[in-house]
Amino acid sequence: ALLALYAAVAALLVASSFAGVWRFPAVPPAAWTLEAWSQALGGSAALPLSAGLGAFAALASLALVLCWFEAAPPDWDARAMPLVLAPLVIPSLLLMAGLYTLALRLALDGSLAGLAWVHTLVALPYVFVALAPAWRSFDRRYETTALALGRSRLAFWWRIKLPMLAAPLAAALAVGFAVSVAQYLPTQFIGAGRHATVTTEAVTLASGGQRHTAAAFAVLQALLPAIGFGLAICRLPWDRWTATAT
Fold it and tell me: What is the pTM of this model?
């Protein structure tokens, strides 16, 4: 039932994005048009900005999490976990007010660097939580065996550990990308209203009554994370590395 509800909502969004005049009680629209999509894809930089911010936030968050997992002693996790999980329970408005104050002091407000910074900070806890169970449960006997056979730690990490943990790594990247795409308050606060993403455009157009263009941006907002999770499922480059390692 839940999947059917999601499918119905998605179908209505897609239909609304292509609809022209659609008055009640008409079931099909009176006309179909590509005007909303021409505005969403041709006249706005929201889509490439959302994709770029999402990719940067996901990769930067993953890099920071991997550095923590590899360099920090295991007993530090218990101390760091409350700090990592705090952004997930603190109200978003309070968190953004504090980050905005920090961005003002660092002269990052209204800049793309500030947006990349805040999106990375927001995505970081989700990537940590998504990857921590699989990474911490990795059997260290594989590392011991590889070192005993004369492999370096770098070769072990690249040729054995990375391919074996390809699925959770890809899932963590997809989660970080989806979290970044969905951010509204961080983009508005730190971006100072100067940079538009598909999420901010969808909310702005919906509140302004432009239903068809808002529907097009809403479809893009749902499509970007879906593409990210689809790539995570495929894991085409990871499969090649796994085959090489084995």
Answer: 0.86
